[in-house]
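Milestone M4 deliverable, item 7.
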Amino acid sequence: MPRRTSSVTRRTRPSRPRPRLPAPPRKSLGQHFLHDAAILDRIVREGGFAADEQVLEIGGGTGELTERLAQVVEHLVSVEIDETLCRHLRARMARYPNCGVVCADVLAHPPHLLLAQGGGHLPYAVAGNIPYYITAPILRHFLTAEFRPTRMVLLLQREVAETLAAKPGKMTLLSVSVQLYADVRVLFTVPPEAFTPPPKVESAVVRLDVHPRPVIEVEDEERFFAVVRAGFRNPRKQLHNAIAQGLWLPPGAAPDLLRVADIDPTRRAQTLTLEEWERLARAYGALKRQIDESRRAD
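Output delivered:
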């Protein structure tokens, strides 16, 4: 991944003393609490949060970002899984009538129900400093929800943020899965010393502007992702070898399938665009229909 040092937020010390934590950070929940005031303010500012917005926050934690969001947006629903932190958040945010705190696992409930439980309504945006180990499940949960957010502003591991925004040539399965639904921008990076406790990696704030429907016309989303997963199953292999191992195909059919989709069989998965993946998925669907019709005729 290219390293853009010009956007890195470098601070040798926090802009104010670290706040006293209401409870020790729980390693099992991946808790690293952002305490740098300047960075917190920058998330709200560059995330584009506005006075007419409903916002669902993933993981309110100590409430540093929660309070800043509540001061800006129309209504905020902060979802926190840690019961001790929930009690702390409810006490801290009691003076904000436009903020509801929901103690729940954000992955266990549809987003619109969590929003309603906290007094919010559709449409909504998402914000959060999320546990890095569940980044992919959280993205999938929101981007494939019945009611998708209009925007997501998330603090992630830097390498993951750059992967989300990758261009063809450096794409991954996660890149394709996210970019099918959203435009992705890495806003700025955040050093470990901005957190308590400091993580072992550099972080980044990423903004996803979510589309109401996939950015390209997809004939069958299930088939599309089956083909993409097959391609990335062995990303170092040429594409004809990768899909031959990952999809059901007649022996020797993979190169011809790729040619039908106007894709060089010797390319690798990370080089394909969304449009090329959809062409390949459609070609694969047509081949399966042809084989099924032939079997019925016999």
